[in-house]
Inverse folding.
């Protein structure tokens, strides 16, 4: 569902061959200082090797320069000879706004006057600025130059590489300047072009043409969803259907089947996998199934199936009885190298030499026996007659007592074979030993073991055979990605399931082990740990996730004037719906923490001294026992924020078309401000977070109703920030009453240090009896102090009584 209205842009589908270009000209053949700017609203800013704009091809002598992104960091690359390149990455990643719109610039000073060259990155809200440095300049030894290639200047699929990612979304404008801040030599402004235009001339005389699926458009996508049924009705000869569509969460929410274990999901998709038996079979199993086509089940006896569930990355695994054995045939792979790996948990070493694993192969050595006994781990390589070709005999510290991985790795080394035995404590360190013998490795043809009474009680599973020797498939999947940041968990799961998702913010709160739950449940528990927002994408059939930090201290996405922009009624609500003044958070299978507010208007005290107890208890899949206390404190902060709510803010875009460009950019989690409130409401700017919205589109109506909560709790402290980088008083009040116009206050401090007198700390705002005043001078190093102020910053003007509380207007909040 889309609407054609608002400012135009260059639509970039994100496919190789989608670009806008202008041919090479003398003006574009810049060999000295360069200044490049790109303004876009993209869905894939964080992609690897993202192409934005460049005069660069991989043809011989075609390389001049290009600007892109590499793993979320701006990347600039240029050539001095048309073949080899010099690269520079921004030292810090830019903060991508929730709207996805960012202007990015780079300058290259080919001779910085100190025997080197300098690259500097910049960002801005739009190409109009203001521009801010993105990290420190990158200084490169030696002066440089830019090769004068015959490549065209392209935007979107800038360099035409199949291995790189093409920008997807919208480009609003771009600029290329000869010299830093110098002469414009290319200036495509796509907002100034008519919809449907396929070719145009920019202000510098360059002719631009569109290729592939690009076009000039003003299309605003408002909804992407699926229709689950098409009920047909008719009246006389008019046949019609009324449909109801829903986003992708409806479909994914209907399935309740839990995902397989992390090992079971990861190993079968590994490069070089030849055979694999998870051994997660049910309690009455008689063999281990294989998820790989063409691989027969693993024959087994004497195994107590589905007995041990202590390995985070697995469903329950079997325990060996004294008479246990396994045997499985392995399809032959290309000979030359191979790796056999499994997980195991052995309490103690057997007292006599006992076979743990017997691998059959087609090379010079036909059998590889992994055998154990007290303080010894051995590997024997035997030829077809049983004669020993090679031997590893190593002590076995850390081989027992916890879940571990065992690897047998065999590789070619010239005319010899190198074999290695590796054991790795899951979540810890590992040990290895190796040996070499004459001959070739061949390929694995079978795996088996008679085990024996010495290994009774050992737990094992996830037996895999690989045709490569560097497989890291089991790494992290073995402990179910315990400690993984929440964003990475959500992004990884979406990628594994082929579910498109847009990510905003680092989402770095660590989460515990991935459990055997349905996909959405796993995503939701990551969302809960990070305290972010998972929601449906508006412009494609997929999801979006914005982390907690992306909600902090946002610039307004939509600034409204109450009298000019709001369609009533705007009804404030002051209730106890979200009050939580006694918060307990428990880590799943771990400890808990409690945080309470015991004094103040929303405290646990009985009225009139508080509101009574409003308790809340939650269990989160946190990574460590250090986290519950932080989460409980943050939950208390959110639950005791004392501010009136405005649940619905209604905007009529049919009546106010000037708001279309900004209002249609607002998405879940964005900040909305409303100035100039009616006289019967508090005079401060209404500061809100859009938790969602309802939209009505018809022939004559286009309204947006934003569901809002206060933004105040999300404004957190930052060091050295002029507003949010200040510590508040521990206790201050007026030492004398003042009139409504007095500009000199006497302020007494009853607890903690007195107010700062340093000129560098001024000005700052204080709140006294609902009135915001701006402090412009403080004198006196002891209490009371003389404070000079500008009155009525927020429109409140009134006399203030002796003893009135004096506080910073913006209270400092320590972020989670």
């Amino acid at each position: 569902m889309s609407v054609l209205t608002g400012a135009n842009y260059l639509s970039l589908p994100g496919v190789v061959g989608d670009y806008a270009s202008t041919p090479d000209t003398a003006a574009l053949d810049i060999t000295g200082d360069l200044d490049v700017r790109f303004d876009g609203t993209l869905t894939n800013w964080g992609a690897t090797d993202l192409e934005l704009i460049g005069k660069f091809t991989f043809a011989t002598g075609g390389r001049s320069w290009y600007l892109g992104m590499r793993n979320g960091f701006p990347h600039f690359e240029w050539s001095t000879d048309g073949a080899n390149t010099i690269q520079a990455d921004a030292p810090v990643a830019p903060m991508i706004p929730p709207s996805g719109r960012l202007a990015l610039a780079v300058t290259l000073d080919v001779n910085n006057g100190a025997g080197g060259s300098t690259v500097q990155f910049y960002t801005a809200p739009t190409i109009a600025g203001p521009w801010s440095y993105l990290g420190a300049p990158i200084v490169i030894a030696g002066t440089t130059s830019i090769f004068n290639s015959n490549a065209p200047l392209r935007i979107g699929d800038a360099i035409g590489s199949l291995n790189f990612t093409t920008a997807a979304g919208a480009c609003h404008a771009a600029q290329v300047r000869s010299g830093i801040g110098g002469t414009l030599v290319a200036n495509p402004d796509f907002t100034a072009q008519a919809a449907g235009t396929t070719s145009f001339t920019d202000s510098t005389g360059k002719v631009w043409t569109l290729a592939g699926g690009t076009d000039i458009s003003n299309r605003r996508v408002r909804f992407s969803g699926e229709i689950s049924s098409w009920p047909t009705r008719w009246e006389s000869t008019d046949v019609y259907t009324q449909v109801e569509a829903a986003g992708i969460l409806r479909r994914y929410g209907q399935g309740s089947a839990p995902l397989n274990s992390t090992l079971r999901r990861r190993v079968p998709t590994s490069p070089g996998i030849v055979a694999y038996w998870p051994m997660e079979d049910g309690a009455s199993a008689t063999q281990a199934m294989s998820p790989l086509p063409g691989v027969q089940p693993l024959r087994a006896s004497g195994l107590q199936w589905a007995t041990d569930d202590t390995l985070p990355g697995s469903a329950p695994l079997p325990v060996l009885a004294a008479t246990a054995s396994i045997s499985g045939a392995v399809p032959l792979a290309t000979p030359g190298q191979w790796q056999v790996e499994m997980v195991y948990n052995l309490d103690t070493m057997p007292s006599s030499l006992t076979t743990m694993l017997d691998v059959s192969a087609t090379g010079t050595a036909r059998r590889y026996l992994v055998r154990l006994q007290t303080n010894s781990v051995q590997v024997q390589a035997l030829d077809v007659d049983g004669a020993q070709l090679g031997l590893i005999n190593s002590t076995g510290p850390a081989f027992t007592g916890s879940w571990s991985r065992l690897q047998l790795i065999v590789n070619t080394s010239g005319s010899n074979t190198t074999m290695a035995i590796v054991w790795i404590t899951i979540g810890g360190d590992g040990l290895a030993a190796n040996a070499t013998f004459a001959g070739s490795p061949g390929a694995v043809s079978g795996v088996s073991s008679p085990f024996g009474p010495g290994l009774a009680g050992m737990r094992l599973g996830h037996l895999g055979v690989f045709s490569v020797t560097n497989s890291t498939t089991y790494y992290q999947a073995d402990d179910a990605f315990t400690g993984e940041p929440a964003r990475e968990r959500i992004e990884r799961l979406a990628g594994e399931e082929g579910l498109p998702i847009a990510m905003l913010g680092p989402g770095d709160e660590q989460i515990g082990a991935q459990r055997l739950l349905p996909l959405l449940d796993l995503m939701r528990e990551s969302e809960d740990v990070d305290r972010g927002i998972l929601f449906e994408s508006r412009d494609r059939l997929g999801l979006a996730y914005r982390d907690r930090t992306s909600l902090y201290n946002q610039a307004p996405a939509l600034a409204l004037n109450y009298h000019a922009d709001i369609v009533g009624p705007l009804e404030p609500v002051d209730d106890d719906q979200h009050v939580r003044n006694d918060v307990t958070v428990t880590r799943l299978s771990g400890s808990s923490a409690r945080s309470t507010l015991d004094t103040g208007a929303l405290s646990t005290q009985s009225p009139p001294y508080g509101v009574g107890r409003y308790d809340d208890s939650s269990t989160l899949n946190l990574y460590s026992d250090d986290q519950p206390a932080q989460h409980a404190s943050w939950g208390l902060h959110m639950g005791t924020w004392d501010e009136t709510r405005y649940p619905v803010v209604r905007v009529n875009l049919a009546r106010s078309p000037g708001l279309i460009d900004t209002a249609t950019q607002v998405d879940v989690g964005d900040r909305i401000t409303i100035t100039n409130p009616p006289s019967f409401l508090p005079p401060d700017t209404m500061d809100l977070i859009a938790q969602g919205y309802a939209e009505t589109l018809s022939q004559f109506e286009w309204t947006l109703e934003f569901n809002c909560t206060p933004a105040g709790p999300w404004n957190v402290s930052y060091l050295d920030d002029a507003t949010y980088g200040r510590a508040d008083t521990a206790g201050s009040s007026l030492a004398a009453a003042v009139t409504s116009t007095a500009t000199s206050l006497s302020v007494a401090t009853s607890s903690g240090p007195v107010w700062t007198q340093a000129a560098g700390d001024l000005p700052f705002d204080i709140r006294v009896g609902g009135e915001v005043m701006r402090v412009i001078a403080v004198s006196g190093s002891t209490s009371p102090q003389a404070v000079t102020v500008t009155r009525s910053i927020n429109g409140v003007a009134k006399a203030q009584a002796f003893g009135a509380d004096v506080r910073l207007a913006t209270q400092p909040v320590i972020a989670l």
About this structure: Helices lie at 248-254, 262-266, 486-496, 519-530, 562-565, 627-639, 660-663. The mean pLDDT is 94.
